[in-house]
Amino acid sequence: MTKTLIDLDDEALAEAARLLGTSSKKDTVNAALREIVDRRRRAAAVARMREMVAEGEIDFSVIEKKDDGTRQNVA
């Protein structure tokens, strides 16, 4: 782990701690960094899946909803 001296926006840090459920500055910053990395990775995965659908690599027409709302493969 790297030790770094930075100026932080106290209000933003407090709000982030509240939203993330963290109690220390270190935990808040680390949790926020992990959260943004995870979000960007998920967004990239969704974008790639959309590309795959557009290119016909994924075909949702083979999936159909059952009466109970769950999905079943009909292929």
Could you describe the 3D structure shown?
InterPro entries: VapB_antitoxin. Pfam families: VapB_antitoxin. This is Antitoxin VapB6. There is one protein chain. By secondary structure, this protein is mainly alpha-helical. The chain has helices at residues 10-20, 25-54, and strands at 63-65, 71-73. Strands 1-2 form a two-stranded antiparallel ribbon. It has one domain. It starts with 9 loop residues before the first helix and ends with a strand. Helix content is 55%, strand content 8%. It is elongated and about 55 Å long.
Keywords:
elongated, 75 residues, 8% strand, 2 helices, Antitoxin VapB6, VapB_antitoxin, mainly alpha, two-stranded antiparallel sheet
Give me a quick take on this structure.
The chain is built from two helices and two strands.
Task: Please write out the topology.
Layout: H1 10-20, H2 25-54, E1 63-65, E2 71-73
Antiparallel strand pairs: 1-2
Protein name: Antitoxin VapB6
Elements, N to C (H/E): HHEE
Helical content, roughly? 40-55%
Query: Which band does the percent of strand residues land in?
Result: 5-15%
Count, helices = 2
Mean pLDDT, rounded to whole units?
90
- How can the largest sheet be summarized? 2 strands, antiparallel
| Rg of Cα set | 20 Å
Shape: elongated
Distance between the termini: 49 Å
Would you identify the regions where 5 or more consecutive residues have pLDDT less than 50?
A: none
Structural class: mainly alpha
Strands, count: 2
Strand order of the largest sheet: 1-2
Please, how many domains?
1
Protein name: Antitoxin VapB6
Pfam families: VapB_antitoxin (PF09957)
InterPro entries: VapB_antitoxin
Organism: Planomonospora sphaerica
